[in-house]
Amino acid sequence: MWHLVCGDVAAVGVTQVLGEDAAKGVRVLRDDLAVGPLVDVEQPPCSARAGFWLDVWPIAVTPRPDFGPDLSADASWLAGLARQDQAVTVWHGDSCSEQLLLARVAAALVQSELPLWEVSCGTGDSSVRMRRAVGMIEPAALGAYHLPKRVEAGRKAQLAAQWRAAMAANADIRRWRDGEFHGDDHRAVDAILLAACTPEWQPLPRVMAEVMAGNDGFFATDFFSFWRARELAARGRIELGGTAGQHGYGGLSVRLG
Question: In angstroms, how far is the first alpha carbon of the chain from the final one?
């Protein structure tokens, strides 16, 4: 059986739960589907999506990944999923990316009799205070969530429709709330960042932390938050100063422009 997870941290816990033999079926999909264009996510070479991630990636952080091959490999693998004979389990929590992965896999299998299972590890609430992603659970505790549930035909079709709608909408950001995906643009994220800035210099990571802790419905990562800071600086809304350090943003300061 395939066990699909979002990100390497989640994979560590799932691998520990499954044991050595079953863990051979763990496949990690690293694309954060909650942000960026989805218009060509299923169409290798996925140029628009790869270009987005290159923009997000800090210039100071090397080596710069070549996102196209990995995105294309995921798209091709998922396209062929229905033609193989292994059942599929998607592990997910309240991360929008995890929920989008579940919907994406459902779309790949919607015309197939191949069994699709889900392991739900979340709270069902994607607000900052309540949400829980698979990778947030200690590996030793994750086994208690290993209660696979078959995704029946009706739910599979509903999830597939949600995935197709998310691709068609092609929003800047997708938030997961009450079992639905809601498209958004960058203004709400930028507003949090700007509200955390002052006329005086302060460490950029402190401001980024406000963005990362203030977004319901999806997890704003450090690189995504740093990218929004660079975009606002390019428009003259804020100023960035200092010398890029760890992760490309350590050592930087920010103030209102």
Answer: 53
Of the candidates 75, 124, 131, 129, which has an alpha carbon nearest to the alpha carbon of residue 104? Answer: 75
What integer best gives the mean pLDDT of the chain? 96
Question: What is the tens place of the pLDDT at every residue in 74-114?
Answer: 999 999 999 999 999 999 999 999 999 999 999 999 999 99
CB-neighbour burial class of residue 180 (10 A; exposed 0-12, middle 13-18, buried 19+): exposed
In this structure, what CATH number is given to the domain that contains residue 198?
Answer: 1.10.10
Among 42, 2, 7, which residue's Cα sits nearest to residue 26?
A: 2
Q: Do 45 and 110 fall into the same domain? A: yes
Range of the domain at 208: 186-256
User: pTM of this prediction?
Assistant: 0.95
pLDDT over 90 at 22, yes or no: no
Q: Distance between CA 196 and CA 119 in Å, rounded?
A: 37
For 49: left if phi > 0, alpha if psi spans -120 to 50, otherwise beta; the answer is alpha
- As a whole number of Å, the CA-based R_g of the chain is 19
Amino acid identity, residue 57? W
For residue 229, how far is the Cα from the chain centroid? Answer: 19
